[in-house]
User: What shape does this take?
Amino acid sequence: MASDTDTIFLKLNPILQECFDDDDIIATPELQANDVEGWDSLAHVRLILHIERAFKIHFSASEVTSFKNVGDLAHAIKAKT
Amino acid sequence: MDFFSDLSWLLPAPADFRKQCDSLTTTSGPLGRTVRTLATHALNEKQLGRLSRVISELSSGGADLSSLTPFRLGVIGNGTLDLIVPTLTASAARHGILLHSVQAEFGQTIQEALDPASGINRARPDAVLLCIDYRALPNLTTPQGITDAVTMIRTMREGFRRNGGAFSIVPTFAPPAESLFGSLDRAQPQSVRGAIDGLNRELAADVAKSSDVLFDVAALAETVGLANWHSPAQWNMAKLPFSATYLPLFADHVGRLIGAMRGKSRRCMILDLDNTLWGGVIGDDGIDGIKLAQGDAVGEAFLDVQRMALMLRGRGVVLAVSSKNTDAVARGPFQRHPEMLLREKHFAVFQANWNDKATNIKAIAETLSLGLESMVFVDDNPVERGLVREILPQVAIPELGDDPALYARAVLSAGYFETVAFLEEDRNRADLYQTNADRVALRDQAGDVEAYLATLKMEIVFAPFDSTGRARISQLINKSNQFNLTTRRYDEVAVEQLGKAPAVFTLQVRLIDVFGDNGMISVVICKPRDAKTWEIDTWLMSCRVLGRRVELMVLREILANAAANGIERVMGVYLPTDRNAMVRDHYEKLGFSRAGQPGDGSAEWWTIAADTEIEAPPMTVRRSAHDTLVPA
Assistant: This one.
């Protein structure tokens, strides 16, 4: 059953805020690593692990490296939930 | 939910964990104990990272963390350390250590050890944690593989010792989840699994000959399951040496090892009795009624708890009892129950009385001349655990969950008794503490019990006898022996008649608190003695809610209803049995005056005016319909 995209963004908000320790982050489709302080490759791995746990899904290595922005990420989550 | 990855023996993290972390940075005074208490929750990776950061800030800002023992740890490995290292400081604080970690560059292992100018060696750590796994040993399955691996690891250890003045924390190796030959792997060193089997044994023997410390990562991985421990995806993605799910567990194990090196291991286990060492309540169920038997699923679980206690005692852990019971009743099973594994001689202190457990645990610690930091307290009752945590935060207290079958696992998984060396004299240490299993004198009450009770948000529910409660009311009336003033028994038919008799006042009492609904915990029956007097025919209470001021609230309810019914005096009687000595002073403590006693001591009469003011204890009251309603 596919999740509603809005629900996914709502659920992503606290994960992003927690991961980057910044309560002002808002998950938008355009948001990308360059926009967020501390979003380096390691933080990216951390974020993916958190998302995998929160949504109970699993990303393949090629997916993990293909996300260009939060929109891509939400799209992939939607396809898996 | 997973028992191990969730650190289920620890209390869940408080809802305002972030806020508590932040408030640490603005608090002055000694903070070590607060930090340790906050760390002693089941924190996830993120929470560990946050608390670790706060601890490091406090430490570099000169805050008073003196109750924690400083320790410098170097960390090297062939995988990514960046996710492991941030979880270590908070996990070490849980075990009494103020940890400062120094992390090597990615993949630097031998080089860090052999170069005197390496980052690790220059930091002069107390110890170096070798976070290496089987992927660091590509030639392991060659004929010389095991010997070469042991030699390589020894070279590292000697390097850090020589160049950094540090000893090493040496891991065993978790075998991969995949086999090569199948079952033959175990006997076939040409498989990675077979080779690792041999390597771990040689490594353990090699480390035992030195002052380095073995960290049995293989046991940890096997405990949670190799297929869970190893995540090929996470290794491929970020070279994580094990699944991130187990970061908190891994970090806790590092913490407990370092704690053990610095003498933080616990030395004494204090056990509750009813529903901890046996099923049921000895004072009510009697020796024949408690559950403790082979062949009975519940009884077996409690035998496991006893077996665990005996094994720990065999390796030098001192045992003590703290139970809310009459002393002679509590000792009964130890003296006479055929299935009991534990006997009185196994306990250094046997404390059975009706005082709060914090006061008792403090007395036990003083008797044994052990610090509260050496104590572990095992009790099935969350309220007792909460009280002791509140008043004596130094005492370690495992969460036990609902199933006695997992009690022993919870205690042993917490790592309270982690030890890095075992000497012959340790074996007999428990005997050295043996007094005559006497009760010890109590000092002053250990802390503010009232304040703790207020945090329980108790709600007491009063109702007259009704058809819904009838079976349970009758069961309590026929089963309760200890907190039972008259021990009068009524069957269900009699209970129904009492409930319908217009002149009889009946009360069934439930208690709800933050831990849940305790169910029906008290029953009262008052019968008219004359037009102006009620006699309390029956008053009983479950011992599980002792010390919660429930009896005060019940008395208020009785008096209010008496007054509303035009009654002026309420009389109580204590009929002594060999089981109910604990309520001998019940009426006196509640403010009744003595109203006579026949010469043979068979009954003690007490009286109180119905308009006596009783101060309300901290709980809210809810009522369902009585014939005469009393305003709340």
